[in-house]
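Entry 12.
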Amino acid sequence: MIPTRLRDIMQPDFPTLAEDTPIRRAVATLVESRAPVAPVLGDDGRMTGLLTQKDCFRPALHASYHQEWRGRVADHMSRNVISVEADAGLVLVAEMFLEHPHRVFPVMDQGRVGGLVHRSDVLAALVRMG
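Predicted 3D structure (tokens):
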């Protein structure tokens, strides 16, 4: 069966962070897990933002210059997150990747982050469809 919905190709295992996580620990989490992004969750488990590898460059460069890590995840994360629903069709998600420079979107399932979808996963699924 060829997958046609995001739910079929999303990656359900991913790191998550809290807004008050020290940025140094958050950067280490992304690096160790080889994850390009980590959803930031509030106390209620809902997504409040997204920390990307790109977001981590500024604090990492600061630390390399000043030998000091500063800040928390909340100071560096992206708050205006573009996400997609788990039951969205692959064509819709492919069009979203064309419109936005992102490489990964969080996948929402009943109001919570259910997974991540990578641009390469959508492209591979489209190839299998054609």
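Annotation: The mean pLDDT is 94. DSSP finds five helices and five strands in the chain.
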